[in-house]
Amino acid sequence: MEEKAKFRFAVMGAGHISHKFCDAVSLIDECEITAIASRDLKKARKVAHKYGIAAAYDSYEQMLIDEKPDAVYISVTTNAHYDLAMLCMAHDTPILCEKAMFRSACEAEDVFRHSKEQGIFAMEAMWSLFLPNIRQARQWIEEGKIGDITLGRFDIGFQAEKNPKNRFYNPDLGGGACYDILVYAYDILTWLIGQPVQGTSVQAVYTNDGVDKTDIVQLEFPDCMGVLTATFEANLGDQEQAVVYGSRGKIVIPHAHHGKECCLYVEGEEPVTWKDDKTINGFVYEIQEVMSCIERGEIESSTVPHEMTMRTSLLFDKIYE
Amino acid sequence: MEEKAKFRFAVMGAGHISHKFCDAVSLIDECEITAIASRDLKKARKVAHKYGIAAAYDSYEQMLIDEKPDAVYISVTTNAHYDLAMLCMAHDTPILCEKAMFRSACEAEDVFRHSKEQGIFAMEAMWSLFLPNIRQARQWIEEGKIGDITLGRFDIGFQAEKNPKNRFYNPDLGGGACYDILVYAYDILTWLIGQPVQGTSVQAVYTNDGVDKTDIVQLEFPDCMGVLTATFEANLGDQEQAVVYGSRGKIVIPHAHHGKECCLYVEGEEPVTWKDDKTINGFVYEIQEVMSCIERGEIESSTVPHEMTMRTSLLFDKIYE
């Protein structure tokens, strides 16, 4: 019996995050990484060597031409996502693109139009939505454990090194709290609440270079509110969490963008803490989603649909209007 | 040597909160309550009996005429504050008025204009600003313990009994989360941060009667942001707190509108918890402020100036515009 061919990923970018992706792929039998490209060939070769990747390129396009991968993982900084996504579209190649996928609604519209017209899969790497503790929290909400939702909040923040040249603060690298962390807050909270967002209001504080360093977003849902806080200027510590309040209780998710726990508090009952003790690398689930969607011939994920990315892109437009 | 005459308060309203005020006055040697009035004479008599108050009235005006108190404490529900404040102004009587003092900027302007023109003291009973733990927190901020402030937040909320006739939800009694609890969040956080508010954005959820049950407010300061959450629909529990983040650390004040603690976290140092172990009744300090301001011939408190009440009244206008 012939073994089913492995799903072949290629990786664009050889920075920190590419390592986590390569590590995740190594945990999944059904896929492999066949090539990695970076403008800095040495960096690409280093990652290739570490993870046993056959080919390293200094040209993204050459990699697409030579390798014809089943999908590309775009792991470069946000500023370069649009160009590489369009390059992949030009080569009919499906993409999983690091968050924030785009800097503006205009970029998002363009890529998703190509995705739809050409029937090519495209998804933002919002890996947290696939984490077991986030899934458990949403299940509790859907089961009505906390009754009707009245309020949701998501707080995320740390003190980024105050260097105008780093990826947090450098506008040329797509720096900004909205791209780096607010995107988590928006996607995870709206996904948990599962209701349409009817109104959004944003206030931000900017650096002298015009990069947003603190964002506060109010979300209006049909019968509840949400509030998101994202900052590069405060170590939130224990206060970095998502909380969904309901008429009968609340759900607390510590460090909700990368955590392993969720806690259910129902009035009159003992609190329940649910712990994810099986996840080794949280990227595994989104990678499985990509493979499964592409195998089914879909152009988007139902968990991270184009529309979700469009909404955060519109939010970025509000912050940078 | 003749004993200095005691400062003579009269109380309008005989509900729950009037008891706490009477109790506080009983702890201060230099003042007394000489009369209490309620539309329900039985209630007034009950409080008078409990606290040894000489006179009980069913007419607010008659009490002012007969007693000529040094100041009146207005403890009725918010809907009636304006009329009683104007009545006191008409009788040249200084006032301490429960929060929220007014329902709209229009009411506030009117009373404060009279206060200024006639030289009569008027102050909102924002007692929390005088609490030792809040003072300690502000002192830490002024001393630069947490460096430059980057973000402030204030969360306050509980599940109010869902009865459209109670003081929380009944518009005829001045119900609404903004009047009952948001006012604390706004005043305490802005006072702690001590910077001018340059922009305010509000989103609220309303009951079918049009009463706000959840409010989220973004505050823009010169170089930081604030976010306030106030709700009648969620028991915030441990998350009911004020937190001020700075470049070097943070200050956390649990249940900041009536708490006794504040905690200082400075990076690289052991956390410090400051506990107020002397306060018996938190209203004492605001009462001392009223007496001291009136004795000095002032028409407003520098801690709770008219302008502070004007700003929250303008905020209410935004919520009810």
TrEMBL record, chains A, B:
Pfam families in alphabetical order: GFO_IDH_MocA, GFO_IDH_MocA_C3
GFO/IDH/MocA-like oxidoreductase domain boundaries: 134-251
Keyword Oxidoreductase among record annotations: yes
Gene Ontology molecular-function annotations: nucleotide binding; oxidoreductase activity
Record bears the keyword RNA-binding: no
Residue stretches making up the Gfo/Idh/MocA-like oxidoreductase N-terminal domain: 7-120
Keywords recorded for this protein, A-Z: Oxidoreductase
SUPFAM superfamilies noted in UniProt: Glyceraldehyde-3-phosphate dehydrogenase-like, C-terminal domain, NAD(P)-binding Rossmann-fold domains
Membership in a protein family: Belongs to the Gfo/Idh/MocA family.
Record-given protein name: Gfo/Idh/MocA family oxidoreductase
Organism expressing this protein natively: Blautia liquoris
